[in-house]
Amino acid sequence: xxxxxxxxxxxxxxxxxxxxxxxxxxTGSAFVLCVLAVVAVRVSRSSNGRVPVQSxxxxxxxxTAGGSRTAARMPEVDSRIFQVTEATGRVETRRQGQWVLVVxxxxxxxxxxxxxxxxxxxxxxxxxxxELRDRVEIRLDSISQAGASVDLRRGRVVAHVGRSGGSVxxxxxxxxxxxxxxxxxxFVVTADDRGRVAVATTEGSARFEAEGRAVHxxxxxxxxxxxxxxxxxxxxxxxxxxxxxxxxxxxxREDKVPVTxxxxxxxxxxxxxxxxxxxxxxxxxxxxxxxxxxxxxxxEVEDVSGRIRRERQEIRKIPTRPxxxxxxxxxxxxx
Length: 335
What we know:
Low-confidence stretches: 7-16, 37-78
Shape: elongated
CATH topology of the domain at 82-236: Jelly Rolls
Number of strands: 24
Strand content: over 45%
Structural class: mainly beta
CATH class of the domain at 82-236: Mainly Beta
CATH architecture of the domain at 82-236: Sandwich
Radius of gyration: 39 Å
Oligomer: single chain
Helix content: under 10%
Largest sheet: 15 strands, mixed
Distance between the termini: 192 Å
Mean pLDDT: 80
């Protein structure tokens, strides 16, 4: 018996529909990608290759090997503040009518008043540092991306600009000192209670202005200005810290002993931790309290560049004994 050949079954209608749908999806996706590419190119050209500022605050943009640009997130830094990177001893700032202690890590802003007792502080803004020595009072006048200005009321500050483009100026008693040309520099400014100002530069160059005259103080030189007078011509800083002291001689009986000496003008003198006035010629005189027995006396001199020299002497005080009075028997009523 002969087998009848089987006829091929007709193709399902769903297969061509599925194929057509797939083609449409692929074609549509390709069209969308082309449109997005064209838009991206136009946006890139219109912005001249720049990334919008608002999208890159605190970010650093870098290029990869393929030419694409990626943004690496960086810590945000506010250029309008000073951060306290070091605070030792007594350091205070004025807040809401009261003096409050300042510690390392605190933030100071424009118009803040800061003072030190027996202490030291370092304020940092970018590559700029301002160091406050003992018994300093300053006011942060202005802080911006262009630089910072500080009003020195009294004491000694050390300003250090670490790289080009930074600017710091210090005003004191109608004078102004700043690094020249926004270039790196390190300079020291000292102001006393009488309005005398001294400036010394140890790195780079500083410009010192007073009473309509400006002098350029290069590294290794110093200048100063008396109240109401223009600055002196810059001169070389002494190789050594100069100090000459006249000590009291022998055992003493008084409650206070005189100590006199001489140092370079503009230097700061402290005797047993107490600041002693230095006149315009570098002379100083002090009356030091002593007690019965051995009394150590230390004189510390800090010159205009911040170098320190100390001398120490021991003064002995002996007790003052009243005369011994022995009773003498007398017969007052006998004749």
